[in-house]
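Running co-folding for NAP.
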Amino acid sequence: MKTVLITGANKGIGFETARQLAELNYFVYLGSRNKEHGLEAIKKLNDMGIANVETIVIDVADINSVRHARQEMETKINSLDLLINNAGIAGDQPQDFATGDVENLRRVFDTNFFGAVQTTQEFLPLLKKSSQAAIINVSSEVGSIALRTETGRNTNRDKYNAYGSSKTALNAFTVMLANELHDTGISISVNSVTPGYTATDLNQFQGAKTIEEGARPIVKLAIQSDPGITAKFFKDGGEVAW
Ligand SMILES: NC(=O)c1ccc[n+]([C@@H]2O[C@H](COP(=O)([O-])OP(=O)(O)OC[C@H]3O[C@@H](n4cnc5c(N)ncnc54)[C@H](OP(=O)(O)O)[C@@H]3O)[C@@H](O)[C@H]2O)c1
């Protein structure tokens, strides 16, 4: 049975990704920064008849919590097949760069960017022990510089500058880590994927997609078996321009 750790999986797209991957016979470590919320999510899955899930307390913005989670996982498994850096926050509004609160920007980066980097660093040794490992970074179209500079595109440009730039940085992490691993002969794929605008707490349930639809491109990427697919940015039904 393949193993996966999904951060921020107690609700929203992460939870649904956990459900779908568990249904596909993965053993799912469901990351939650709050233990009670993690246990509630496990109970929900158990009530659906899903038993191959366990919760792990992990606050990706807190290096001690990430290390503790890694140590706990090392007592349970010898290798990890898939890491999904899904935990994310939208940050407070307003987020324009001309006047926006830099502390807010830092908080958003602490979770969406540094959180993914430090989680990946801690779990890389376990991933390296898998015969075919992958890292998936859950990103967003609002992090795409190409889309933001497309002529005539109405993007609500300044509304998500903190969030968007943190996802741009996450995308840079995807490409640079993918190349770094490839160039040092380590066969672990690293890709970004966007769920698309999905109704969750992150956007006060304004998104157009259901969590089932939002999780779909993540699960599709998770179960594809070509290790040569790396340093890419996917959406449902195709690729996204960086
Ligand atoms: N919804 C969309 O339209 C959309 C579009 C593009 C990309 N995304 C991305 O999809 C991912 C999942 O978002 P979602 O829409 O499912 O939002 P959500 O329902 O708000 O879920 C976010 C999850 O991340 C967790 N989290 C936040 N900060 C954390 C931290 N420091 N450490 C660990 N976990 C943390 C939350 O935990 P708590 O319950 O404890 O807060 C929650 O489990 C995010 O990366 C988001 O940026 C979402």
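Result summary
The longest strand covers residues 27-32.
The longest helix spans residues 102-128.
Job closed.
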